[in-house]
Write a structure and sequence with these properties.
2 domains, 434 Repressor (Amino-terminal Domain), six-stranded antiparallel beta sheet, 6 helices, elongated
């Protein structure tokens, strides 16, 4: 006997609907910091801050450096010449988009217009503040000198005022050498300069420029002292070796001796000493 099983109707599975309450997202409340609480930047303060950056002057500097007119700059940037003129004079403030156009013309980053301007180097060395120092390394100096650039940090040139005393019996002139070059302008008197094995005689108004890595000596001639302005350049001498370039840091008689970047035998043992002595002289 065959039994038949009737199919039961299938119930449809329904996913219950989730009801989400209509709530606004919670916002985190931050307490104001003591530095910013009650602070409100006014329009005058913002204008003053922008004016300090001197954006217009920087734009004009770049334009004139390229010998470019306002009309030409306008063609490159898509800005009118009158608008650019107002930018340079500070009558309007550029948007970042317009400033970016100008910066790209001159291959500059946007930060160029906001970075602090480098301070221009300018130092005055008063005659009353300078310190007269004797030739170093000898008991009986044949000359005295005054540094004319001790206030300039990391300088490449070392200028001096030198006074060469008349020769006297028993004084043996001391030769010296250092890396770089030397320039001398004779203000008064007569001077013999022994450079290597050759002696050169110079008189008032004469000037010489020589390789300072070669041993050299100053000898005053005549009964009056000789005065000169001397400038030394602390730069190694380039020489060609095997088709390439190499720095010659030693002379024929041995390596040049430097004291804090100052030629031994001529300049003071330390420029810092000159500055400190100068400061003490001003205090007294």
């Amino acid at each position: 006997m065959t039994m038949q099983i009737a199919e039961m109707p299938r119930e449809e599975l329904r996913t219950p609907e989730l009801s989400v309450p209509n709530q606004e997202p919670k916002r985190l409340k931050t307490a104001p910091s003591p530095e910013t609480e009650g602070l409100q930047v006014g329009s005058d303060a913002a204008e003053a801050f922008i004016a300090e950056k001197r954006i217009g002057e920087r734009i004009k500097y770049l334009r004139l450096k390229k010998s470019m007119g306002l009309v030409e700059l306008g063609r490159h940037t898509g800005l009118s010449a009158s608008f650019l003129s107002q930018l340079e004079t500070g009558r309007v403030v550029p948007t970042l988009r317009n400033l970016a156009r100008i910066a790209m013309v001159f291959s500059k980053d946007l930060s160029y217009f906001f970075e602090p301007e480098p301070q221009k180097l300018f130092r005055v060395h008063r005659s009353k503040d300078r310190v007269r120092l004797p030739q170093s390394g000898v008991a009986d100096p044949s000359y005295f000198f005054e540094s004319l650039g001790y206030l300039v940090p990391d300088r490449q040139l070392d200028p001096y005022f030198a006074e060469f005393l008349p020769t006297k019996a028993g004084r043996d002139p001391k030769s010296h050498q250092h890396i770089g070059y030397e320039f001398l302008y004779l203000l008064s008197g007569e001077l013999d300069i022994r450079h290597g094995d050759v002696t050169h005689h110079v008189e008032q108004g004469d000037a010489i420029y020589f390789d300072a890595s070669t041993t050299h000596t100053y000898v005053c001639q005549g009964e009056a002292a000789a005065t000169a302005v001397i400038v030394t350049l602390q730069q190694p001498i380039s020489a060609s070796i095997g088709g390439g370039s190499a720095k010659v840091l030693a002379a024929a008689n041995g390596p040049a001796r430097l004291r804090n970047g100052v030629p031994a035998g001529f300049a003071p043992a330390s420029d810092a000493g000159v500055a400190s002595k100068s400061a003490s002289s001003r205090a007294s």
